[in-house]
Structures
1.
Amino acid sequence: MAANLSEALAAPAPGLPDRALMPHHVAIVMDGNGRWAQQRALPRTVGHREGAKTVRRIVQACTERGIGVLTLFAFSSENWRRPRPEVEVLMNLFLTTLRGEIRRLDNANIQLRFIGEPAAFPSTLQDYIAKAQRRTANNTGLTLVIAANYGGRWDIAQAARRASEEVSAGRLRCEEITPEIVHRYTCLADLPEPDLFIRTAGEQRISNFLLWQMAYTELYFTDRLWPDFDPADLDAACAAFAGRERRFGLTSEQIARGRGA
Ligand code: FPP
């Protein structure tokens, strides 16, 4: 048994890796809502509603596990091409989920952030997104990032555009543009990059998610459909992450000796 509180807090929960080996930032592509519903002969939209319940469970699981940042891909720039009724259901679901959850998120000290282009969303949703971000801006617990109308290529393009605006304004010279400078203009520049990427439902691709930010992220794929994904699945992903050797371009020997030696 832990001798004191700090020891107890430092000790991993049963079945979880040591805290030092846990990912700080987890990014998830929540795939498989449609298939979950189709397997039950239900409309795809029922799968999205079940998916929203999974979001609630996994957010709570992340707070319990001391994960610092959770980024969820809720709606990609490409999802507008889905049938209009499905897009409408998703917009309503985002709004009702936000309305229903904001007090709980705030009470749990969770900071809610959105990345992407909200301007394309219905104005009520845009207003609520702004309100939810303002309300939780000073919270210091889990940072919950919702990528909505987001695309990794869009993110890199908007960073390039903003950097070139600085050049036009004479505040930056072209030859000063380095990866570090571009990074400053990308979404999430103030947060650590994702350590662990999880995609549910069997597909093994990134689908235009955080292309810039995931250069050194560990990738984890599971066949579990998002509505079925539960805290034990999150733990399995964290355990797989803990077993990876992250080299960031170095050799194993350098890592063993101490970074970069
Ligand atoms: C992908 O599954 C899922 C989406 C495009 C929507 C994700 C939305 C939610 C989980 C709802 C709630 C989210 C928040 C943040 C409140 P899919 O429809 O592509 O599934 P399929 O590949 O089986 O067809």
2.
Amino acid sequence: MVQSAVMIVDTFQKAKENLDRVGYLDIKHSKEIDFEKEFIKLKKSKDAVLLAHYYQEPEIQELADFLGDSLFLAQAAAKVESKIIVFAGVHFMAETAKIINPTKKVLLPDLKAGCSLADSCPSNEFAKFKAQYPDAIVVTYINCTAEIKALSDIVCTSSNAKRVIDSIDKNKRIIFAPDKNLGRFLMKELNRPMILWDGACVVHEAFSFDKIVKMFQQYPQAKFIAHPESESPILDIAHYIGSTSGLLNFVQSDDASQYIVATEAGILHQMQKVCPQKEFIPAPVQDDTCACSECAYMKLNTMQKLYNCLKFELPEITLDQQLMIQAKAPIDRMLELG
Ligand code: 13P
Ligand code: SF4
């Protein structure tokens, strides 16, 4: 994408001042730049790789060296040998990559790319919650801060949560945080009680049960598929429930030709790409005036920000050494499970 320019900010110091102000490098360039082309060149010359989540804009997904769901990206981050990781995702994902592979420089194009689920679990409050159940094993969904990971016994993603919980002695009590919807889904699936933290994702809680049911009349042949971060009534009517990559695999192996999809709309790009003959319809949300099935945090990343962040190697994810060591152990336990 070629963009024209107004202002030059080409010194490291100016870039840093700009970053402190807005959380990303809001730089206008003095000449027209093809951000995609220049990003690819920089990636090569600086020995960098691009990791991107399925919820990114299609143009970013297409450029990624590693594209996938949270589990795949954590596994990929562990194996990266290049000097720099540019993470087109949200803050907790880039932080996880840094914790797993601490000698690499990890860049996040926009520091404001947060996550409502991670925000719903502040570490001071979670520490008090945990103290009420001293005998419990703490399982945390990867969508949380490094501080929460450091308070955990084992981490999981939506792809491996069942396996992680099954690996824990049946006689042990489990605290599951921060996503109560995923937690409830797992309790039902595994027939195992857990102590749940009351957190949720704004995107997956935005879907409308009533509108989805109405849509079944409009598309009687369609199958309804949902991410387990969605609320229970929605999951109860789904033909298939799975992580982002689970949903993508399902539509490829299943024989239906239409799907109503309840997860962040970015995944529809890959679904359409791998199944061009099928139709994918984003599940309707409660509020017709918003694009609520898009994660506003994920969508903060743009090609221009990707280019600027690699050019100036800012913003960089940095973490306290001790915190990294404590947060790494529960992630390693998850990765060891495969
Ligand atoms: P997965 O990538 O595990 O499907 O999780 C979805 C999500 O909400 C990421 O933020
Ligand atoms: Fe967080 Fe939800 Fe966005 Fe995923 S989709 S990053 S869980 S707010």
